[in-house]
Write a structure and sequence with these properties.
By secondary structure, the chain is an alpha+beta fold. The protein folds into two domains: about 55 residues; about 55 residues, no CATH class. The chain contains six helices and four strands. A four-stranded antiparallel β-sheet has the order 1-2-3-4, covered by helices on one side. The longest helix has 17 residues. The protein is globular and about 50 Å long. The model has no long low-confidence stretch (mean pLDDT about 85).
Length: about 140
């Protein structure tokens, strides 16, 4: 077991140097068809989780029950203290949710949608843009 844990740690570490194309290839080698994430960082994190879950186990029983009950349709609400990040146009954008707004790039905005509009120049549903809505998953 110790050898498997050590191997998983080195495999996860190796992901940091991989491009999106290499991450997809690695996923396909291990698990079959790769998810269609467009963000290398997101795919890197999901792949790292899967590699570690293979060795250490996945979700605990209460979490599996909750996900099964909701049929995987988990929607979160942004709450104060939450940090959210999104890669857009080759740049990582990070916000911090505070009471009554969102801090992005040193400025306070009234909502996630305002930040998404500032980043993209287009009207977006802010929670969807930052991955808090199921519709963001492709």
């Amino acid at each position: 077991m110790r050898k498997a844990k050590s191997r998983a740690a080195s495999d996860v570490s190796a992901l940091s140097a991989m491009s999106l194309a290499k991450l997809r290839s690695e996923w396909e080698r291990r698990y079959g068809a790769a998810p269609r994430h467009r963000s290398a960082e997101l795919l890197r994190r999901v792949l790292a989780w899967r590699i570690q879950a293979d060795v250490h186990g996945g979700f605990d029983a209460p979490t599996r029950r909750m996900l099964g009950h909701e049929q995987g349709k988990v929607q979160m609400a942004a709450t104060a203290g939450m940090r959210l990040a999104r890669e857009w146009a080759g740049r990582r954008h990070e916000v911090v949710v505070v009471d009554g707004g969102v801090i992005y790039d040193g400025s306070t905005y009234g909502s996630l949608s305002e930040v998404a509009r500032h980043i993209t120049g287009q009207r977006w549903n802010g929670p969807r843009f930052f991955g808090l809505r199921q519709a963001n998953v492709r």
